[in-house]
Design goal:
- The chain is an all-alpha fold.
- Helix content is 74%, strand content 0%.
- The chain has one domain.
- The chain has 11 helices and no strands.
């Protein structure tokens, strides 16, 4: 799959992956279905003039998305990918994990690592400070998507609320909490990457990848007995038709 050059091409590339996953009845379609939904909202925000620099925001969106698109293609081709993406892609074969876990693994890799790398690339060095306002505006757009996303997941995972309760987040829904926390961490990481020299970045990115993979492993296989038991209960309540789930997330 060629690299996207515009936000419209990002949407088209995600559509290809989604349709491929639908044809294969693969859980690999969960994350891009949600991702395309958010990308369209960001595209609308650019068109509405919500960003200080719409052209730069489109560049960021494209650079950001291309990291996922490249990782997906490389994994399908049997090539090496970052460890956090490897964890997420391999987990797609697990029917014993909830829909939200599959989504969170993709969010963990793409936001916690890819977004930070992309932001530092688009606004390197001191320029990273000028990106903060638009970066925060994306947070607002994401927050506006939470109700729809939460409803979509609930339509195929009726007991998803139990994960929030057992996880101790009675006041914050899991998707909203995870998005906000991940983007806050990504911004801090982006500032760190932006201040590094070219020769320093590969090792730093590798170290962050390792830490993020540890986080993802905890999402996939939580150590707490009660959480593991809750996951089993939630999985049994969820829709079993992968295509139906992908379509709901869209």
């Amino acid at each position: 799959m060629p690299f996207a050059r515009s936000i419209d091409e990002v949407v088209d590339a995600l559509t290809v992956i989604i349709e491929q996953a639908r044809g294969e009845h693969s859980r690999l379609g969960y994350f891009p279905a949600l991702y395309r939904r958010v990308t369209r909202a960001v595209r609308d925000g650019i068109a509405q003039g919500r960003f200080q620099d719409g052209a730069r925001m489109e560049r960021l969106d494209v650079v950001f998305a291309n990291r996922y698109l490249a990782a997906y293609d490389e994994w399908r081709a049997g090539q090496a990918v970052s460890r956090c993406w490897l964890l997420a892609f391999q987990a797609a074969g697990r029917a014993d994990r909830t829909i939200i876990q599959h989504l969170l693994l993709g969010m963990n890799a793409h936001i916690n690592l890819d977004l930070a790398v992309a932001a530092a690339e688009v606004a390197p060095g001191p320029a990273i400070a000028t990106l903060q306002g638009d970066f925060q505006e994306i947070n607002q757009i994401l927050n506006e998507q939470v109700d729809g996303v939460q409803d979509a997941i609930a339509s195929v995972s009726p007991l998803m609320w139990m994960l929030d309760t057992v996880g101790g987040r009675h006041e914050e829904r899991m998707v909203e909490f995870s998005m906000a926390k991940a983007r806050d961490a990504a911004w801090m990481q982006a500032k760190f990457f932006a201040g590094l020299g070219t020769g320093e970045k590969p090792a730093a990115i590798g170290a962050v990848d390792t830490g993020i993979t540890v986080i993802g492993a905890g999402v996939l296989d939580p150590p707490e007995f009660l959480m593991r038991a809750t996951i089993r209960m939630v999985v049994k309540s969820e829709a079993q038709d992968v295509v139906r789930i992908i379509d709901a997330l869209q």
